[in-house]
Specification:
The structure holds 2 protein chains of 2 kinds. Chain A has helices at 14-24, 64-80, 141-144, 146-158, 200-204, 220-230, 263-273, 290-300, 317-322, 346-357, 376-382, 397-402, 412-424, 429-433; strands at 5-9, 31-35, 41-45, 53-57, 85-89, 215-216, 238-239, 257-258, 281-284, 303-309, 324-327, 334-342, 362-370, 387-391, 406-409. Chain A is an alpha/beta fold. In chain A, the strands form 4 sheets. In chain A, strands 11-10-9-12-13-14-15 form a 7-stranded mixed β-sheet, sandwiched between helices. A 3-stranded parallel β-sheet of chain A has the order 1-4-5, with helices on both faces. Chain B has helices at 18-28, 69-85, 114-125, 154-164, 180-190, 232-243, 262-267, 285-288, 298-310, 316-319, and strands spanning 9-13, 35-39, 45-49, 57-61, 90-95, 129-133, 148-151, 170-174, 193-199, 210-213, 220-228, 248-256, 273-277, 292-295. Chain B has a 7-stranded mixed β-sheet with strand order 10-9-8-11-12-13-14, with helices on both faces. Chain B has 10 helices and 14 strands. Chain B has 2 domains: 3-152 and 298-318, Rossmann fold; 154-295, Rossmann fold (3-Layer(aba) Sandwich), CATH 3.40.50. The mean pLDDT of chain B is 91. Chain B is an alpha/beta fold. Classes of the chains: A alpha/beta, B alpha/beta. Chains A and B meet through strand 3, helix 2, helix 5, strand 6 and helix 6 of A and strand 2, strand 3, helix 2 and helix 3 of B. Strand 6 of chain A pairs antiparallel with strand 3 of chain B, so a sheet runs across the interface. Chain A: Keywords: Kinase, Nucleotide biosynthesis, Transferase. Chain A: It holds the Pfam family Pribosyltran_N.
Chain lengths: 435, 323
């Protein structure tokens, strides 16, 4: 039982709110949170918040934008209602995942004409320097624009045009079209870990101004700023996500941020539910997540392997089509893939396929945030993953119904404990280590 | 050539109201800047910018589309932020229909002042200037610490009345006390008489008892309001005016939000016409409601953009419709 505290929940994840409140032994604060018929959010806080310590729990599920604006409105309502402190508790931070910008390794995108085979090109013809007004030739297109390439490729796959370059080493094709690795235009097939768009056709038809390299706006800092300006600005910390996709996120806020980790939960699952886990191998599906995975491997004294995503096209077609390289040995071992976020499930299902090919006996995937949007569920169901373990930072009931491989871990005790500690001014760091 | 191109008007269009953007761009004689907004499969909004805005005078036009207010809002905020990080010289948010304008005061305990929140968010995102139209409460201008031009649809409305009805017979009716100022202003400029309906509103979107103050017998009663949302008020007011033996009853509202059952309500009401401006996308509502007529305000918006860009006075537009 904690006094002088009000827990409010957004609409995105009522179960988590109830669970957290149960853990704290208090009832969730009463509020009205609906929509006017015009589409504007309507919010009324029923319980008094004057002088109270207010925690607002809102995840980023379903309609992210609605949820985020709702959260801002609730924060500002509590602030104008003289709350002593307002803390936004976000199990999953919206817009934390923005696509990797399709820049090349070297940085700035120079438009080198790398396809001299195009008709009309002689040794004398010089590719124009990009500047406003110059019309872009066809052959410059894919090089200037990685995004175009990628989308053109997915579109091609969608239309069912199966490229002839498809390789035997690719193994059995998964049902998803976007996952095929056809390389229709030779060297221009880069693999970028962008989100899947709902409506790519729009972007495929989109042409930027000649000479200008189109780019995708990064909303990360904006979201942090907006939340601060809504009034979560006082000495308030924003309990961000269980795992920030980029740890740099904490630097975006002008207010204290406490970042909880899903690692202890995942670790405990490994210890309790995976037989002979000491014999298993922890795998990071990409180099970016290596730190996360090695931390788990070290603490549990397990072996570690890494999947390296090959982005440079190499001369050997097998390497290119496989595009993922396993660094380490997994033959006849149980594999445990560890990642922070699974959205459309592209990366992890591809990784699982590779592991299976390399001789893994069983594949567990342990992921903190199971967003599972788009066609993620059918993809997981058809993949080589034997068990997918996610936490309930976003609602998982519906996912669970559709996917028998899914196991969910409850994070509400972690959040309840964090809220209790923040409220009493105790240290949070203990939560980072407990076993 | 490229030097001359610098610091031009760049009009970016949000996805909520492409028609209005196209009309404004047409009147300015420019092309809409190349941007595209998409949703990721996890419902986050992604904005792709396809041309340089460095050192340009950027105008971002986004209205509050009925039903998708929050989506439109986030999209606009992301666009503003994107232009800011892309070194635009000045960013002006052109918001013909300001979202959450009705939540402008703390009318109950712990009610959010959402309009102020939205104002803060727009500034936080990086807007240097706001152009809007017929704010529900003009005090909202004070929520901004950057310049906020509140344009009026009134000149366009006056012109419509003069062109379509006999001004001699017109009586301007305000459907509530709050709109009395707006209605008297129109009545004065038309030299027409004025009436007022007093109403009690127990809850939002619900209308209580109403009383008519003024004479409308055998006159053309024109209800004037800043927005027509569910149209419950207008319907009741029209019924009241019919009982008071008005010859014809029509309604003019700046923002035709027309949510919920508005179209059915209007079709079944005693209104002979509902006139709205095109600040809000109307979609197929015009075809579903034969009584609905639309005034184009893109001229006013375009002229405001042009004048703001050139550093000319905007106040002319408060009383005149640009040619």
């Amino acid at each position: 039982m904690v006094r002088n505290i009000v827990i409010l929940g957004g609409n995105s994840h009522p179960e988590l709110v109830d669970n957290v409140c149960n853990n704290l032994g208090i009832a969730p604060g009463e509020r009205i949170l609906t929509k006017f018929s015009s589409g504007e959010s309507r919010c009324e806080i029923k319980d008094s918040v004057r002088g109270k310590d207010v925690y607002i729990i809102q995840s980023a599920a379903d309609s992210v934008n609605d949820g985020f604006i709702d959260l801002c409105i609730m924060v500002s309502a509590c602030k104008t209602g003289s709350a002593k402190r307002v803390t936004a508790v976000m199990p999953l931070f919206p817009y934390s995942r923005q696509p990797d910008v399709p820049y090349k390794k070297a940085g700035a995108p120079l438009s080198k004409a790398s396809h001299p085979t195009k008709n009309g090109y002689t040794f004398e013809s010089v590719p124009g320097t990009p500047h406003p007004g110059i019309t872009r030739t066809q052959s410059l297109g894919p090089d200037i624009n990685g995004l175009d390439t990628k989308l053109a490729r997915t579109k091609l796959a969608e239309n069912g045009v199966n490229g002839t370059t498809c390789n035997k080493a690719d193994g059995p094709q998964t049902p998803s079209g976007a996952e095929r690795r056809n390389a229709p235009s030779g060297s221009s097939a880069f693999n970028y870990t962008t989100h899947d768009y709902q409506n790519h056709s729009l972007l495929a038809n989109f042409k930027s101004k000649p000479g200008y390299k189109q780019w995708v706006a990064q909303a990360g800092t904006l979201v942090a700023d907006l939340l601060t300006c809504a009034g979560a600005d006082h000495h308030v910390l924003t309990e961000c996500r269980m795992d920030l996709h980029d740890p740099q996120y904490q630097g975006f806020f002008d207010v204290p941020v406490d970042n909880l980790y899903g690692k202890p939960l995942l670790k405990r699952y490994i210890q309790q539910h995976i037989p002979n886990y000491k014999e298993a191998v922890v795998i990071s599906p990409d180099a970016g997540g290596a730190k996360r995975a090695t931390a788990v491997a070290d603490e549990l004294d397990m072996d570690f392997a890494l999947i390296h995503k090959e982005r440079r096209p190499t001369k050997y077609s097998e390497m290119r089509n496989a595009s993922m390289m396993l660094v380490g040995d997994v033959r006849d071992r149980v594999c445990i893939l560890i990642d922070d976020l699974i959205d459309t499930g592209n990366t992890i299902t591809r990784a699982a396929k590779l592991l299976k090919k390399e001789g893994a006996t069983a594949i567990y995937a342990l992921v903190t945030h199971g967003i599972l949007s788009g066609d993620a569920i059918p993809r997981i169901n058809a993949s080589a993953i034997d068990k997918l373990i996610v936490t309930n930072t976003v609602p998982q009931l519906e996912h669970k119904r559709l996917c028998t491989k899914l196991v969910t871990l409850d994070v509400s005790p972690v959040f309840a404990e964090a809220i209790r500690r923040v409220h009493h001014g105790e240290s949070i760091s203990v939560l980072f280590q407990f076993n | 050539m490229s030097r001359e191109m610098a610091n031009e008007i760049k009009l970016l269009s949000g996805s909520s109201h492409p028609d209005l953007s196209a009309q404004v761009a047409g009147r300015l004689g420019i092309e809409i800047a190349r941007t595209v907004s998409l949703n990721y499969s996890n419902q986050e909004t992604s904005v792709t910018i396809g041309e340089s805005v460095r050192d340009e005078d950027v105008y971002i036009l986004q209205s509050a589309a009925t039903g998708d207010v929050n989506e439109g809002l986030m999209e606009m905020l992301i666009m503003i932020h994107a232009c800011k990080t892309a070194s635009a010289r000045r960013i002006t948010a052109v918001i013909p229909c300001f979202p959450y304008a009705r939540q402008d005061k703390k009318d109950r305990s712990r009610a959010p002042i959402s309009a102020r929140l939205i104002a803060n968010m727009i500034q936080t995102a990086g807007a240097n200037h706001i152009i809007t139209m017929d704010l529900h409460a003009s005090q909202i201008q004070g929520f901004f610490s950057v310049p906020c031009d509140n344009l009026y649809a009134e000149p366009s409305v006056l012109r419509w009345i003069r062109e379509n009805r006999n001004v001699e017979q017109v009586v301007i009716v305000s459907p509530d006390a709050g709109g009395a100022k707006r209605a008297t202003s129109i009545a004065d400029r038309l030299n027409a008489s004025f009436a007022l309906i007093h109403k009690e509103r127990p809850r939002p979107n619900v209308v209580g008892r109403m009383v008519l103050i003024g004479e409308v017998r055998d006159k053309v009663a024109i209800l004037v309001d800043d927005m027509a949302d569910t149209c419950g008020t207008l319907d009741k007011a029209a019924g009241l005016l019919r009982d008071a033996n008005a010859k014809e009853i029509l309604a003019i509202a700046t923002h035709g939000i027309l949510s919920g059952n508005a179209i059915e309500t209007i079709n079944n009401s005693s209104l002979s016409a509902l006139v709205v401006t095109n600040t809000v996308p109307l979609g197929d509502k015009v075809s579903r409601c034969p009584k609905l007529q639309v005034i184009d305000v893109s001229g006013t918006l375009a002229e405001a953009i042009r004048r703001t860009h050139n550093g000319e006075s905007v106040s002319y537009l408060f009383t005149h419709v640009p040619v």
